[in-house]
Design goal:
With 228 residues, the protein is an alpha/beta fold. It is 36% helix and 19% strand. It is built from eight helices and eleven strands. The strands form three sheets. It has a six-stranded parallel β-sheet with strand order 6-5-2-7-8-9, covered by helices on one side. The two termini are 18 Å apart.
Length: 228
């Protein structure tokens, strides 16, 4: 399926051996703080805030800056990113769980799954805590990879840490960068939320209340996907 195709919204059953979960927009709704911080950043750099918001979801901050300010030295982007991460970590006002996320994560206890996020350890810990969500035991964060989404490195590393072939993994994502990364890793993608609908996931759900997890006797995970 291409990024311009319309994803399936009818009920479906998908089978996998592991699930790889994005955080922002997928488990946690952090849009309010992302908007606040990135729009302030856009204003400081004389950029259109609306256009900036089209870029930043799913990527590490320095990777977004490289797209938005292509002529700026990498070192400046990295330094700016460090400041932005500290600002984001200290601002959790309005950070809440995506509907169904607590129950979804609870249903994955004892099953192979990992968090694969562009946030670093501090930010992912702060946002998951603010949303009242448990952190998966296996986590791939910004410190774990050399390339940001849409590069597939994070998802491939998550699969490797779980000992599962990429083709047997299903990714849960909301953004263009994340969905592109999942598909580049050779994985199927469940899109979560309105943003995901436009970027070519295999199926799309309104939120995680539309997903039921069943542990099969053969060691696989069955996902019962409801209509978005």
């Amino acid at each position: 399926m291409t990024a311009t195709a319309t994803p399936t919204t009818t009920p479906a059953v998908l089978t996998a051996r592991a699930l790889l979960l994005d955080m922002d927009g997928t488990l946690v709704n952090s849009d309010a703080v992302v908007e606040r911080i990135w729009r302030r950043w856009a204003e400081r750099h004389g950029l259109d805030g609306h256009e900036v918001m089209k870029v930043v979801h799913g990527r590490q901050g320095h990777a977004s800056m490289a797209v938005l300010l292509p002529d700026r030295p990498v070192e400046q982007n990295l330094a700016d990113n460090t400041r932005m991460l500290a600002e984001e970590t200290s601002d959790v006002e309005g950070v809440v769980a995506i509907p169904g996320a607590p129950e979804f994560l609870a249903s994955l206890r004892g099953l192979p799954h990992a968090l694969v996020t562009s946030a670093d350890v501090a930010l992912s810990t702060a946002r998951m805590a603010a949303a009242g969500l448990r952190l998966p035991d296996v986590r791939v964060t910004a410190e774990s990879v050399g390339a940001s989404k849409p590069d597939p490195e994070g998802f491939l590393k998550g699969a490797a840490e779980l000992g599962v072939d990429p083709a047997d993994c299903i990714v849960f994502e909301d953004s263009f960068a994340g969905i592109t990364a999942g598909r580049a890793a050779g994985m199927r993608v469940v899109g979560v939320g309105t943003r995901a609908r436009f970027h070519g996931p295999d199926v799309v759900v309104e939120d995680l209340t539309r997903v039921r997890v069943e542990a099969a006797g053969d060691g696989t995970i069955r996902l019962h996907i409801g209509r978005a």
